[in-house]
Amino acid sequence: MADNVINKIIRGRSIKYKMELFDTKFDSMIEGQNHVNEKSLMFMLFYYGYANIAKKVDDIVKNNSKMDETLNIDERIPIALIYYFIKYEDAFTLNDMMMRRLKFSITESENGLKIAPYIAKEMAKILSWSEKDIQREIEMYEHEVKCNKVALY
How far is 54 from 34, CA to CA, in rounded Å? Predict the structure, then answer.
């Protein structure tokens, strides 16, 4: 209950205010008593604006240290984060992962097109996709990004 209240408060505050709350409320996560690597932890805390995802991803890594490995192209993204979105938020398509969960289609300068194949390959391992499935998901994401760009103009 207290975590939910704190999460709601944090969402509308400045980064400085968030850090003050993290320092007091989530100091055990930030001071290295966590299982997920620091770069990924800080990314999740600031990018999503609350600690729930970071806590759950940390629990995944606690149970399987290999899940803390990050994508070669982006050290912010641990495999555990991809696993979390699939297992707990039902992100079963690359579009869903990139646009709704990671939000890379709107936050990354190249709309996440560079990282999409890496995310798709990790999703494939979890969801048992074939090479054909991976290619189809990447093509569908590229098409969606293109359509969104056209819609903006």
Answer: 10
Statement: residue 149 has pLDDT above 70: yes
- Domain enclosing residue 112, as ranges: 91-153
Q: CA 47 to CA 84: how far, in whole Å?
A: 16
Nearest in space to 123 (alpha carbons), one of 105, 141, 110: 141
Residues 9, 49: Cα–Cα separation, whole Å = 10
Residue 76 host element (H or E): strand 74-78
In a domain, 114, yes or no: yes
Could you tell me which residues come within 8 angstroms of residue 38 by beta carbon, excluding any fewer than 6 positions away?
A: 32
Structure confidence by residue, pLDDT tens digits, 27-79: 555 555 578 888 898 889 888 877 888 889 999 999 999 999 999 899 999 99
pLDDT for residue 139? 98
Contact 88, 101 (CB under 8 A): no
How many structural domains is the chain composed of? 2
Does residue 147 have a pLDDT over 50? yes
